[in-house]
Every structure is written in structure tokens, then in C-alpha cells.
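Hi! If you just cloned this repository, the fastest way to understand the data is to look at a raw example. We've pasted two of them here, unedited. The first protein comes first, obviously.
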Amino acid sequence: MVARSWGALLLFLALTWTGIEVAGQDEKFSGYATAYTWPGEKNSQFAGGFNACQFGRLSPYFETYFAALNVKQFDMSLCGRCAAVRGTGPRATGKIVVVKIVDACATCAFGDLDFTTRGSNDITGYSYDHQPIEWWWTSCDNPVPPRWPYFDVAGGMQIVAEARSRGYNVNLAMMEADLTLTGGVIPYPAVAAQVAQGSAAQAIAQAQAARAAANAAANRARQLQTAAAAAWAKVARLQAAANAINGTAQPQAKKAAIDAANAAQTSPEPASPAAAAPASPPGAKSPQSTAQPALTAEPTPSAAQPAAAAQPPTLPSAPAVAADDARGPAAPAASQARAGGSLDLQPRGLVLAPPQGVQGQVAAASLPGTQQALPDGVPVAPGQPQAQQQGQDGAGQQ
């Protein structure tokens, strides 16, 4: 009977314990891990002030591995509870690390946890970065330190630099400290000189980076200066070429203009026939009246006009002969030339020789009566004053 009672009790306890663990495993959360402080420092202004759960000094293990729960899940009833956390990122260690909830994280999202630099490093492989995790609630009894041998120095130095900028005396040894190995003693820098040395090294590194940036900027400026000098040299060459072209073209254009002006001044303007002829005194005869008429060859009768060629020349009328006599020696010649007579050139004037058989007609054309003598000695029959006046007017016009 007693054996059966003990067996039932053991079975009940086994089922109860299994159910709790299963229930705990079913209650998993996923989020991201970050680091907000270093081991042993959960109550400083750097960590956000005194922890929300108002915990004092904890065991060396939980002074190294504690966490702040996101405010969306945080409740004061959860203070002191422990969570088993495993990293799921590319550099996750594969270790399951138990941490104690001691604070609330105001900037964390649902499922997120905020660790110490050592705790974040031993879970995710990063001591300061934002890495994915999964976690569930677990017992706080007998946690085992993960003893991960590697530490993310770059992330630890970020915390060091930030803390020193706010006046904290920290170094990298404090960031990677495992207080389970030191008995809970925080490895503060021995003297302030070490902090000063670390700050100086950091300042030197920043100065070197600034110097490298300045050298790069100076090299770039020199390149731009060289390019600008080359551009100015090209402009100067082009200006010199333009000046040379102007210096060659301007004298040539000036000389051409001067030559054109000189030529315009020296060359006489062409005179019109009316302006070139000298004015004749009143009563003087025109040179054209005494000029010898030009000889023109008699046109040869063509075969198409035989009748016109066979007709005898037409004699001028008596008034026309009187007009020609009034115009002087050259006038009868011109009239005779129009009548078709031949010319006999003499040193002083022309003498008409009428064709054969025409003399009788010329004599018959003359009227008997008193004759008047003109200045040229040409006899004109009386009763012809109109012909005489027309001859004088024609001579004056010529």
C-alpha cells in the first residue's frame, strides 16, 4: 500500500514537472538582443539609472548575466525571473545562457532583451550589435556559465568610447569581464592614467583619421588646381591666337581701304556727252555741220527685191534743195547722198555730181526770177523764203 502511494506520488511529480517544462518551452519569444551596460554596472546613469526592480548586489553570475525586458512585456511581477536565451543570428555561439530580469527597456520592441556586453557576446557573438534571438522562461537555479572564449572587441570599444565620452572610467577589460572568474570583483582601471592613456590613444586615432581625410582633400584640391591651370593655359593660347589673327587681318583691311580711297580720288569720273561738249558761241556752227559724212557702202540688191533696186533715185524737191543750199556746202552733199548721188571728195567741202539724165530735171525745178544771195553764195530762187528760213533754222540747230 505504501509502495503504491509512493509510486503514485512520483508519477504525479514527474508529470507535473514535465508539464511545467513543456509549458515553459511552448512559451517562446523572438526578438533582438542589444547591450546597454557592462558586467557589474546595472545602477549607473549610463545604464539608465537605478534598475527598475531595485536590486542591489547580485551573485557573481547574475552580475555578469542580467537583462532588461522590453516595456511591452515588463511587469514588476517579472522582476527576478530568469530567461533562457539562444542566439539565432549568423555569429550565434549556440550557447543557451540564463539571464535574470532586473530592469525595463524603454526603447525595445516586443520580444527584445537588453544585456551586458559579456552576456550579448556569449549569446550572439556580438558585444554591442543588434542581433536576433529567441528565449523562454526558465528556472534561476544553478545556472552554468557559458565560458565562451571569444569576445567582440570592436563592439566592446564602442561601449568604452561612449562611456568615456560621458566621463566614466572604463576600459575594454571591464567590457569582457566574467565576474564568476573574479569572485564578483569588477576590473576597474588601476589608476586614472590608464583612462587618460586610453583617451589619448582614441584621440590619436581620430586625429589620424582626420589627417587622412585632410590629405585626401588636399590631393583633390591639387588635382583641381592643376586642371584649372591647364584650362587657363589653353585660354591664354586661344587668346594669343585670336590676337595674332586680328593683328594680321586688321592691317590688311586697313591697307585695302586706303588703296580704295586713293583710287577713288585719282581716277576721273566719266563725263556725259552734254557736259563734255564745249559751249558754242551764239551764231557759231556746230562741228557736226562741217564734218564730213561717213561713207557707207551701197547695199547690194538682193534677189528678193529686184524691183526696188531697179528704180532710179528720187530727186529732192525744190524746197529741200533750197534748204540744203542754205545750210552750206556740206548740206547739198548730205541731200545728194540721201538722193542716191555719188560724191566727189575735195579739200574744202563736197561737190554733188547728179546721176546721168537728172540735170534736166534739176534745171526744170528752178524757177525763173530774181535770185537772192546767202552768205555762203548759194543762189536761191525768189518766192522761197520759207525754205530759206527752214535751212537757216536747220543749220543753227545742227
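Ok, and the second one:
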Amino acid sequence: MFLDPSEPSFGGNIGIQLFSWRGEGSAPHVLDLAQTRPSYDLPTLPGLEEIILIEADIGVIIKPETASLNRITGKPYWNPSLRIELSFKSMKLRARIRWSEEGVERIGPASVIPITRL
């Protein structure tokens, strides 16, 4: 995941889409090799439906001193190393993010947003 602070949509937030296969037969393996940035508008296959969006503010993880410079554009970018953890507690899906900061494990909140199809 590469984050570019010059993007208008960048605010320290990330969004991860979860999909469910509701088509005929077994689920196909899908990989979008052309996608270089997270997008809420991924093209989907018939039968593949977005069911949940996980959002987290990673502003606490990306700090100016941890930025790398793009050799071509000279702009800073971040490539944070984090995990998104999902769990079912009391029959409710919960999410959080986990990362390591100077050898210390940190945990932060994430939101589970159901996708409603009309």
C-alpha cells in the first residue's frame, strides 16, 4: 500500500473492500494487477459483490520522518506495514489495525461499514 499525501483524497484514512462470491460454481481467483491505488470503484465480476468496507485512520502511523522520496517525482510517499484484524464477538464483526512502532506492538480502531444494495 503506497500513500501519496498530494492526492486530494488522502487524509490519513484507508479503506479495504471485502467481497463475497454469489455467482454460480466456485469462486474465481481475482487479482487486479493494473490497480496501483486503493479505489472504492473496483470493477467487479458478475456474482462478486462488495459486502463490507473496513476504514481506518492511519494518520498515527505515517509520520513525516518515515516518508520515502519518489526518485522520479521527488514527492514523499509512505509504505506503512500494518495488519487489519477482523473478529466476530457477540455475533458482530469487529475490526482493528495493528502495527509495530519502534519494536512496540500498537493497536488502533477501524470501522466496519456494511454495503447496502438497493
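That's it. A detail worth noticing about the second one: The two ends are 31 Å apart (CA to CA).
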